[in-house]
Amino acid sequence: LSSQIVVRAIAAVADAYKLDEGTQRTFRRAGAIAYDARILRWYTDRQEVSIWTFAGRLHLPYQCGEDQRRLLQSRQGQADLVYRDGAFYLHQTCEIDPLEPRDPDGWLGVDLGIVNLAVDWEGETFSGAQIEARRRWYLERRKTLQAVGTKSAKRRLQPLSGRQARFQRETNHCISKALVAKAPRDNLGIALEDLSGVTKRTTVSRAQRGRHSNWGFYQLRAFVSHKAALLGTPLQFVDVRYTSQTCSACSYVSKSNRPTRDTFCCEQCGFSDRADHSAALNIAARAAVNPPKGYAPTAASSEVRDKLPAEAGSS
């Protein structure tokens, strides 16, 4: 081994024990290896890397998209060499200065759900029958293989989990990209539900447990946060409680306002709407009433609040 590889190996072991020194760590034979500037060099002009190996320095071509090629101009720190599914990948950290958050004229409320993954305050649904069918297929297939429990079934579970993860990641990327692209057109910020600890606060039937936790909403939140920061779009997380039971017209709160999962009908004023659309309106209202620190309401944002229930911020 070269001396710098030894240094990086020691650092990797030390990092593994930082969080919990009392647990014995194990390292996979094909685990990731960290490369710094002394043992890895990028040649972005000819799309090639010079990397240390047991056979000495090798100059190898790499493949990436146009966005990744542009990001490599801002690379910082070390890169990780990862071996996955028979191919090698270099994960390079890039440092980008996000834009300063602009002063929004209002908030694009987004309701997250199990059936419709995301619905904004304009009523646009970011989901579909095809996505729901694939979610159900993955859930039922996984349940079937887990019930069998044989070695063959366990082997088939591994690639299945990989396909499901890639499907969810691609779908969340598409949803987050559409939401972040939509907000600047009307100079809006994005308001999302704060789902921290929601699985502990809510209860579902045994038959619905698998479906209740069958989507990566935290991943979707992370994608929206990342893309919004790059464009300078303000992002706010609001209290999720009672958003689906509050009337977006008169602010009356009652569990009976939602007779079914998909419909909303206010017992007090008679207002009816899709349940997820009504919740998105309430989320936008709460964001307008409780703006983040440093945000000064403008005349346009006051007009948005006039259209939405001013009392929706209360539980």
Short overview:
With 315 residues, the chain is of the alpha+beta class. The protein has helices at residues 3-16, 66-71, 129-148, 151-182, 198-201, 209-212, 217-231, 275-289, 299-307; strands at 33-35, 40-43, 48-53, 56-61, 75-84, 87-94, 106-112, 118-120, 188-194, 235-239, 263-265, 272-274.
Structural class: alpha+beta
Q: What is the global morphology?
A: globular
Low-confidence sequence ranges: 293-315
The largest pleated sheet is described as: 4 strands, mixed
Overall residue-averaged pLDDT value: 80
Question: How would you write the strand order of the largest sheet?
Answer: 8-7-9-10
Helix content: 25-40%
Question: Span from first to last CA?
Answer: 62 Å
Q: Beta-sheet strand percentage? A: 15-25%
Q: Gyration radius, to the nearest Å?
A: 24 Å
Reading the helices and strands in chain order gives HEEEEHEEEEHHEHHHEEEHH
Figure out the total of helices. Answer: 9
Strand tally is 12
Please describe what this structure looks like:
With 315 residues, this protein is of the alpha+beta class. Helix content is 38%, strand content 21%. The protein contains 9 helices and 12 strands. A 4-stranded mixed sheet has the order 8-7-9-10. A 3-stranded antiparallel sheet has the order 1-5-6. A 3-stranded antiparallel sheet has the order 2-3-4, with no helix packed on it. Helix 3 packs antiparallel against helix 4 and helix 4 packs parallel to helix 7. The longest helix is centred in the middle third of the chain and has 32 residues. It is globular, with a radius of gyration of 24 Å. The C terminus is likely disordered.
